[in-house]
Design goal:
Elements (H helix, E strand, L loop, with lengths): L13 E6 L15 H14 L3 E6 L3 H13 L5 E7 L2 E2 L2 E3 L5 E3 H6 L10 E7 L13 E2 L20 E5 L8 E3 L2 E2 H11 L1 H4 L3 H15 L15 E4 L19
Parallel strand pairs: 1-2, 1-3, 3-7, 7-9
Antiparallel strand pairs: 4-5, 5-6, 8-10, 9-12, 10-11
Helix pairs in contact: 1-4, 4-6
């Protein structure tokens, strides 16, 4: 069940935050410490920016499909933000039951005629492979799957959408007990007037820069490893989804 699920007014921007921290007994996937930090901070910031935020934790693969498909049918406002955080591989994320969800399937639901007036933004915190970028002990959000399950979701991204991944294809994404570097850096930018006022592709480019240049893993095994987010856009217009929407002051 969602933590927050009051239906948004037709003209209100919406955000859907789906995170998996704990997996079912017997599923060979490690708990993802730090997920709650990401979710709590994103909820606070997006709510203050005028979004109706719904949170779902530890859903099965089928439940993840259901909440995103439902969101695609109930969108309102000018912008939808979807955040998906779990273990993953290229083109896939995993539910709490260990079953895979194809990102291509999720994205495809947001291409219908009822979504054409809404900008769709997706942020995916999950590994896309096992490689580590050589460019605190950290956890990687990766797991191995068969090649046939790991096709690229890029072709299913609908018009007037952008998808930002925590890492490049084939590489791992890092998660710290205090949160993921990718989503925490996104929150940093949205708390800054000069960040949230940016056109969305400029915001994503600045997010790329900060993670790539400011983050370096520590620890005996992962010390010196880097993370490089990337994004794909099919936007046909400039959009400023977070600008001039602040409902109350954000902390400095």
């Amino acid at each position: 069940m969602p933590i927050f699920d009051s239906k948004a007014p037709p003209n209100k921007n919406q955000a859907l935050l789906v995170s998996v921290m704990e997996f079912y007994h017997g599923v060979p996937l490690a708990p993802r410490r730090g997920v709650k930090k990401d979710t709590k901070r994103l909820h606070k910031i997006l709510s203050r920016l005028g979004f109706q935020v719904t949170i779902h934790n530890d859903l099965t693969a089928e439940e993840i499909r259901h909440v995103f498909k439902t969101a695609s049918l109930e969108m309102g406002g000018t912008c939808f933000v979807g955040v998906l955080s779990s273990h993953g591989e290229e083109g896939l994320v995993f539910g709490a039951d260990g079953n895979a969800v194809r990102l291509a399937e999720i994205f495809s639901w947001f291409g219908g005629p009822g979504t054409s007036e809404t900008t769709k933004l997706f942020f995916v915190q999950a590994c896309r492979g096992k490689e580590l970028d050589g460019g605190v002990e950290l956890q990687a959000d990766s797991v191995s799957v068969s090649e046939e399950d790991s096709f690229s979701p890029c072709f299913s991204i609908p018009i007037d959408s952008a998808v930002m991944f925590a890492t490049a294809p084939g590489y791992g994404a890092f998660l710290h007990p205090m949160g993921s570097v990718f989503l925490q850096t996104l929150c940093d930018l949205l708390e800054e007037e000069g960040g949230r006022s940016l056109e969305v592709t400029q915001l994503m480019t600045r997010l790329n820069y900060r993670v790539a240049h400011n983050f370096e893993a520590k620890g005996r095994e992962l010390g010196g490893k880097k993370e490089m987010p990337c994004f794909i856009t099919r936007l046909t217009r400039q959009v400023f989804p977070f600008a001039d929407r602040l409902k109350e002051p954000l902390p400095l």
